[in-house]
Amino acid sequence: MRAVIAEDSVLLRVGLTKVLEMGGFQVPAEVGDAEGLLAAVAEHRPELALIDVRMPPDFTDEGVRAAMEIRRRWPGTAVVLLSQYVEERYAADLLSANTSGVGYLLKQRVADVADFVAAVRRVADGGTALDPQVVAQLLLRRDNDPLARLTPREREVLGLMAEGRSNAGIAQALVVSESAVAKHINNIFAKLDLPVVDADHRRVLAVLRFLGASRA
Amino acid sequence: MTIPAGLRRTVLRARRDTGFLAAGVPPHLALVPVWAWAATTTARTGNWLLTVPTSAALVLLGTPVLTAVQRARYRVLIGVDVPRLTPTAPEKRTWASTARWLAATRPWRKIGYHLVLGPLLAMLELLVLVLTAAGLAGATVYAWAWALPTGIRQDWFGNLTQRPVYTAAGLLLLCALPWTARAVVRAEAWLALGLLGPSRAQRLQERVDQLAVSRTDLIEAVDAERRRIERDLHDGTQQRLVSLAVNLGLAIATRPDLPDAREVIARAHLEAKEAIAELNDLVRGLHPAVLEDRGLDAALSGLAARTPLPVRLRVDLEERVAPSVESVAYFVISEALTNATKHASAMRAEVIVRRVGGVLRVRVTDDGLGGADAAGGTGLSWLAKRVGSLDGAFHVSSPVGGPTTITAELPCAR
């Protein structure tokens, strides 16, 4: 798999390249701003773009805008945003158009190399990876909807689903059995009035409902 | 021989004062020829149709020039600044607003000063100068009396008792001169400030305007400085720390074969991540970039989510308010939530932000121990000052046993 990197700090660019290469990615291009990123994606058509949110010239949300543009123009390229701080608004922007093939993580998560590589691979394969802090912020903003009916534990499970984890991953994170996780997930489906279709689709719908991206 | 410093100062001041008074004579007399000509010509010809408008025009034209001359004289010669009277021109030019603007320049006082008071002041100035000259002449009579023609010398300075009397009188005059001149200078300065400068109300108004502008500038400068520090740390130290943690992470991931070093590296890795988290909290407290980019509502998500207790957030803002208001509101909420967590052992908190007319109302309530004191804690008194800097109202209600409610009302009309 190939990935391009957009990060204005040269120091970090080197580190990110090493991490991705260790995770089995090829890095055909690394750039320092959004314009260069779009050009690199157009040229290389990578499976993944790893993007810093704050880049020249304005150092605000250049990365978010570039990521949305990439998802619009090249649907085959998944995007992972990295930032010193995560902001629910940027996540909402990013997720408003797409909930697959997107990720939004704190920069410091890169330091846990194995977890980070796994998250990036998940996104490159069409999944999602949201930082727990993003999830916390999104949860905070939704207390007047069906999600309010969820117990704290169920919210936790749903948050982990939104991070893109499997049942096994959720069970591991919460230190419970997989069957307990399955029970929580069924409760979530029921409380959110999700139609009985195949489990994966319901799972996606639940996450969409959770993210507020579902208008259905 | 050394001259005592006190005497030296007195002499120098007297010299400066008399110089100032001498310089006042020509401008103070400048308008006399105008009205003298007008009066005599009118009296001679009996026709005022030419003379009165002409002299009025000359007076009107001369007034600003003479005012400028006088202002320069006061400033350069005795260091008194007669403030310029320049009311801001009206935005909409109507007859009424133009008239108000003209009245604010106080034309009659200026004309009165140059036309009527000026000649009187010139008389006073001339009197002081004459007294000075007489004093000098009397005091030094022995030095020059011999040069006079014999007749005059014998008539006026012949008598042996006359010269000592002249000398004594001259010295007396010279001794009195510094205080006389000073008194006249003071009187002139007082009159000029009253008649050529702005009124007390105008001066205060101007001062208030200046202070308001400089206060706004200062607040903006503080915010800009915080942004700059935030940016520097973000681009520098924070990236370095992340890079450090990433490299340590890579070391752990790629070299599992070094059992001795592994533990040390793992600890360094952990500490690097903790340092990142601590620095992030500190830097975000300085000035969150998202506050500038997306506004108060967006910035509060991150703040509330990072607070270790459940926070209910209710923000009702249709449009963004001024950056300085957003930033003060943010810091009020941030500090209130920090207090709730650290000192009040609260279980939950609620943040309400809403705009009511021209006022942004921020209220943070927690169910903690209470007992917070707006005057005591540095954090709260600092908040009160920041809110005050925007002419806002700040209120803390925190009975012992709780709950604590912190309210800030910030004017935000744009």
UniProtKB/TrEMBL annotation, chain A:
SUPFAM superfamilies: C-terminal effector domain of the bipartite response regulators (SSF46894), CheY-like (SSF52172). It holds the Pfam family GerE. The keyword Transport does not apply. InterPro entries: CheY-like_superfamily, NreC/VraR/RcsB-like_REC, Sig_transdc_resp-reg_C-effctor, Sig_transdc_resp-reg_receiver, Tscrpt_reg_LuxR_C, WalR-like. This is DNA-binding response regulator. One of its GO terms (biological process) is phosphorelay signal transduction system. The keyword Kinase does not apply. It comes from Kitasatospora aureofaciens (Streptomyces aureofaciens). GO terms for molecular function: DNA binding. Keywords: DNA-binding, Phosphoprotein, Transcription, Transcription regulation. The lineage of its organism: Bacteria, Bacillati, Actinomycetota, Actinomycetes, Kitasatosporales. The modification 4-aspartylphosphate is found at residue 52. Residues 143-214 form the HTH luxR-type domain. It comes from the Bacteria. Residues 2-122 form the Response regulatory domain.
Automatic annotation (TrEMBL), chain B:
InterPro entries: HATPase_C_sf (IPR036890), HATPase_dom (IPR003594), Put_sensor_dom (IPR025828), Sensor_HK_TwoCompSys (IPR050482), Sig_transdc_His_kin_sub3_dim/P (IPR011712). SUPFAM superfamilies: ATPase domain of HSP90 chaperone/DNA topoisomerase II/histidine kinase (SSF55874). Signal peptide: none annotated. One of its GO terms (molecular function) is ATP binding. Its EC number is 2.7.13.3. Residues 330-412 form the Histidine kinase/HSP90-like ATPase domain. Residues 225-291 form the Signal transduction histidine kinase subgroup 3 dimerisation and phosphoacceptor domain. Pfam families: HATPase_c, HisKA_3, Sensor. It comes from the Bacteria. Residues 47-196 form the Putative sensor domain. Keywords: ATP-binding, Kinase, Nucleotide-binding, Phosphoprotein, Transferase, Two-component regulatory system. GO terms for cellular component: membrane. It catalyses: ATP + protein L-histidine = ADP + protein N-phospho-L-histidine. Gene3D superfamilies: 1.20.5.1930, Histidine kinase-like ATPase, C-terminal domain. This is histidine kinase. It comes from Kitasatospora aureofaciens (Streptomyces aureofaciens).
